[in-house]
Amino acid sequence: MTVTTEAKTFMNYINGEWEASSTNQVIASINPANKNEIVGYVQNSSKEDLDLAVAAAKKAQIEWKKLTGAVRGQYLYNVANAMEKRLGEIAECATREMGKTLAEAKGETTRGIAILRYYAGEGMRKVGDVIPATDNEALMFTTRTPLGVVGVITPWNFPVAIPIWKMAPALIYGNTVVIKPATETAVTCAKIVECFEEAELPAGVLNMVTGSGSVIGQGIADHPDINGITFTGSNGVGKKIGQAALARGAKYQLEMGGKNPVIVAADADLDLAVEATISGAFRSTGQKCTATSRVIVQSDVYEAFKEKLLAKTNEITIGDGLTEGIWMGPCANDNQLKTVLSYIEKGVEEGATLLLGGEQLKESDYEHGFYVQPTIFENVTTDMAIAQEEIFGPVIALMKVDSIKEALEIANDVQYGLSASIFTTNIGHMLSFINDMDAGLVRINAESAGVELQAPFGGMKQSSSHSREQGEAAKEFFTSIKTVFVKS
Ligand code: NAP
Ligand code: MG
């Protein structure tokens, strides 16, 4: 591995200071478009570093929760302004760290800024209700109180938006935060934390500790002074965190995987359905929890849809996300690439027909990156691994059905329930889909990947711990309701 001389080392952020880990060890963050390029080094922290961060957060929370929502909101507005000035730099860093195209990374960073402003405003909105008491001389109402210290554990696929959509609501409602970002994208997170520093957030209110999931992530789940844990990532890790939190009575919120279907009805606008399928399945190289991975098409239009889908997919340009004109970048890391390739192999072994792609790209420009072709299978049956398991890569399973009823049965026949789409012009089909699709996000004539920051987001079944984040729903996790009864 060539060590790039300009690669900077990023510290932990604890009690308002940038601190090296007690281990004196660092981890290199690699560019998946060119594994010889080191984007930066981050601290490989220990449990002792985490303890310091939690102690700082616990202490700072006492004063932070006393501030008015308006004052806390002003800090978030200032963070948003600091980030806006560095939008280009942060987006470029995200592309270099995880591979999505610069256009997508800019879009994500812009969303991060909007989320900060949305929650800044939340500091001025209502937090409770007046409820008639049985005693007419008493006043009864609800108010909300922060949890205390919130542990934030994030994945690498949205390195800007996910940390912000957890930290901003945690902070506005009066909690303090310890974040452990995905190691793959910890440099991007350090730059976001720098924006909070620039906004002069009081020391200890936001702390970042980088390091391995098994040490720092698990340490957050187990820490007696962390009152709430918000996690986005894989199901295996999420369940362990949930169990650890439950065992010690901490509040937790888990957002996990998906196996998101798109249904194409015989009456659909096929061009729209093709465009949305490609965008949903292949943008971010299929590494969105809301990515389209199963496409269930009514037999009357199956061949026409397939033909258009193959033609459009063939036009996708693959390469370094920083290069102009590139539509799809590499997989975010070597493990992810290997997982995708192993699912493609499994699909072939289980008898699905590989229609397009399926290969790793290794020649010339692709030599040092984790590239795979956009891949389309047909003759996929519901029992196959590629129809059941989350691949987290640019792979589509095409399935043919006779009716919308059958399409819905197949769409629901997985353990996940995050997002789902239908393409149809028939109001009856739309209503059946709204009623019968088991997913936290159902979208009609729009791609499965598409999250609006002001609306609740989360999944059903194994996709989440049945909580929701973003929009007003964030309040439910980051606060506790207190019922107040007052009598003179
Ligand atoms: P992951 O391996 O579960 O990692 C997520 C986070 O957990 C990382 O910060 C990781 O740290 C940490 N971690 C790892 N092992 C841990 C442990 N034993 N205890 C506590 N924390 C631990 O997931 P990923 O590979 O980063 O992300 C991909 C997954 O995220 C996919 O399954 C995807 O569907 C899901 N996702 C879901 C949503 C949603 O909103 N539903 C959104 C985006 C992604 P390290 O980085 O140091 O390993
Ligand atoms: Mg990386």
Would you spell out the secondary-structure blueprint of this structure?
Blueprint: E1 8-10, E2 12-14, E3 17-19, E4 26-31, E5 34-43, H1 47-64, H2 69-85, H3 87-98, H4 102-122, E6 138-146, E7 149-153, H5 161-172, E8 176-180, H6 186-198, E9 206-208, H7 213-222, E10 228-232, H8 235-247, E11 251-255, E12 260-264, H9 270-282, E13 292-298, H10 299-313, H11 334-349, E14 353-356, E15 360-361, E16 371-372, E17 375-378, H12 385-388, E18 395-401, H13 404-412, E19 416-417, E20 419-423, H14 427-436, E21 441-444, E22 460-461, H15 474-478, E23 479-487
Helix pairs in contact: 2-4, 2-6, 3-4, 3-6, 4-5, 7-8, 9-10
The protein binds NADP nicotinamide-adenine-dinucleotide phosphate and magnesium ion.
DSSP, total strands:
23
The CATH topology of the largest domain turns out to be Aldehyde Dehydrogenase, Chain A, domain 1
- Report the CATH superfamily of the largest domain: Aldehyde Dehydrogenase, Chain A, domain 1
Quickly count the domains.
2
Our estimate of the beta-strand percent is 15-25%
What's the short version?
The chain is α/β, with parallel strands linked by helices and 488 residues long.
